[in-house]
Design a protein that fits this description.
Helix content: 40-55%
Shape: flat
Structural class: alpha/beta
Strand order of the largest sheet: 8-9-10-7-11-12-13
Number of strands: 13
Number of helices: 16
Distance between the termini: 16 Å
Strand content: 15-25%
Order of helices and strands: EEHEEEHEHHHHHEHEEEHHEHEHEHHHH
Bound molecules: guanosine-5'-diphosphate
Length: 471
């Protein structure tokens, strides 16, 4: 790790400044060699230096600010120098070329953060959270990522690991020295510890789906027969000042998804390209396809035209709503109503379908709505917040337990849970205690892999290869 690395840390394009990052033992010396003003080699850590980059008066590259952060109190825990030059890319590129000429190596994606991890400044969950912060698309995703960055998952996992370690140590000691160390109480103590650890792990695993939904957005499908106002509803939420509209290629299929922020929640509207073009998902893609789309979704928004009597087609659509958490919008509430919430409740009760009995209940909700006047939009926002955010906060808005958003972490926790189950079986079968050590060790290692405290090098490489340049 003795190489000095550099990269442009800011995104390309026209911006007012670009930032280059240099890290490693030669960082200060190399930048000093191309900085025409102060003597950086003598400068204190955490100082900012104004001047020019260039090798001579005739070859000035750009006017810059240089920030100096000496090891170990820097991002990578090595000597780090940041060069803030003018944006637009060309100046940064020229400076990078100069640095490379001086023997610095171009950093790989994620290499700065990888060094921070390998140098022990952060653990793996914090390292992963760096990209999570960068990718966060709403306040909740951001605050969850920031908590990861502060080490809430690391602290939770390390505390569990400590318990396993002390049990392992006790067991080893007792097996080595049976005359002086008793094992009579050990199974009971270990049993209690495993119970506690298992409960915490299960909570983390269960929270994953919710964490994923908050971070990635809630996969939402809008259903309803033609002319009920689906497109108008879509425009109504996409026209929100707060709405972020992006087209991202679907990850699993080649479909387009559209994002809308409703309240604090990001909705990922599935197949809306199709919905918007044809304005009728049920008729054009067929009931079966609508069902498939529902199968893949987290949430259904069903639109009815409340100014008309219910049709058979409406009833068919209403029947699909019990497949996922859903809200039925009785749209066109600005016109005189032909159907009311009571009518829909009656329909469901006649068909034996359960509807939500509280705002947190993830079954079927109903709201009067008008895509025309936007009546009902704030009720829809609070409903979404209650359905999808309430797990994250207790009443006074304090964050509850840590929430994981990483699939890698979740899978390792499932492994850890498997080790706990095996330990319990071994204990219940009354097997000799030395057999417990194997599963205790594998539990300890799975937990260690979450934080990177026990991690193979190639896995570390794989994790950091997903990072962006300069991070
Ligand atoms: P879709 O086929 O379900 O996408 O329905 P559209 O969004 O195309 O709407 C059908 C018609 O209903 C259009 O003429 C809209 O202007 C009208 N419409 C939609 N929502 C409302 C509403 O809330 N109030 C009123 N009065 N008209 C609406």
């Amino acid at each position: 790790m003795s190489e000095t690395i550099a990269a442009i840390a800011t995104a390309s394009g026209n911006g007012s400044i670009s930032i280059l990052r240099v890290s490693g033992p030669e960082a200060v010396c190399v930048v000093d060699g191309i900085f025409m003003n102060d003597d950086l080699s003598k400068a204190d850590s955490y100082t900012i230096h104004y001047g020019w980059i260039g090798e001579s008066d005739d070859e000035r590259v750009d006017e810059v600010l240089v920030l100096l952060m000496r090891a170990p109190r820097s991002y990578t825990a090595e000597d780090v120098v940041e060069i803030h030059c003018h944006g637009g890319g060309q100046a940064a590129k020229k400076i990078l070329e100069l640095l490379i000429e001086k023997g610095v190596r171009l950093a790989e994606p994620g290499e700065f953060t990888k060094r921070a991890f390998l140098n022990g400044r952060i653990d793996l969950t914090q390292a992963e959270s760096v990209m999570e912060v960068i990718r966060a698309k709403n306040d909740l995703a951001l605050s969850t990522a920031e908590e990861h960055l502060r080490g809430n998952i690391r602290d939770e996992i390390r505390a569990l690991r400590e318990v396993v370690l002390s049990d392992m140590a006790y067991l080893e000691a007792a097996l080595d020295d049976p005359e002086h160390i008793e094992l009579d109480e050990f199974p009971a103590t270990l049993g209690t510890h495993l119970c506690d650890i298992s409960e915490k792990i299960e909570k983390l695993i269960a929270g994953y789906e919710n964490g994923r939904r908050i971070a990635d957005g809630i996969k939402t499908v809008i259903i309803g027969r033609p002319n009920v106002g689906k497109s108008s509803f879509l425009n109504c939420i996409l026209r929100e000042d707060r709405a972020i509209v992006t087209n991202i290629p679907g990850t699993t299929r080649d479909t387009l998804e559209e994002d809308a922020m409703v309240g604090g929640i990001r909705l990922r509207l599935i197949d809306t390209a199709g919905i918007r073009q044809t304005s009728d998902v049920v008729e054009t893609i067929g009931v079966k396809k609508a069902k498939d789309a529902i199968g893949d979704s987290d949430f259904i928004i069903c639109v009815l035209d409340s100014s008309e009597e219910l049709t058979d087609e409406d009833r068919e659509v209403l029947n699909m709503c019990n497949l996922k958490p859903s809200v039925i919008l009785l749209n066109k509430s600005d016109l005189s109503p032909m159907i009311t919430i009571k009518d829909i409740e009656k329909f469901y009760s006649e068909n034996g379908i359960k509807i939500a009995d509280s705002i947190h209940d993830r079954s079927i909700h109903m709201l009067e709505f008008s895509a025309e006047t936007r009546a009902g939009l704030s009720e829809l926002e609070s409903l979404l917040e209650q359905l999808f955010l309430s797990d994250f906060y207790s009443g006074n808005n304090d964050r509850k337990d840590p929430v994981i958003t990483s699939l890698r972490q979740k899978e390792l926790l499932i492994d850890a849970k498997g080790s706990i189950d095996r330990l319990r079986e071994t204990m219940e079968a009354g097997m000799p205690e030395d057999l417990l050590t194997v599963d205790l060790l594998s539990l300890y290692e799975s937990l260690g892999s979450v934080t990177g405290d026990a991690m193979e090098d190639d896995l570390v490489d794989k994790i950091f290869s997903d990072f962006c340049m300069g991070k």
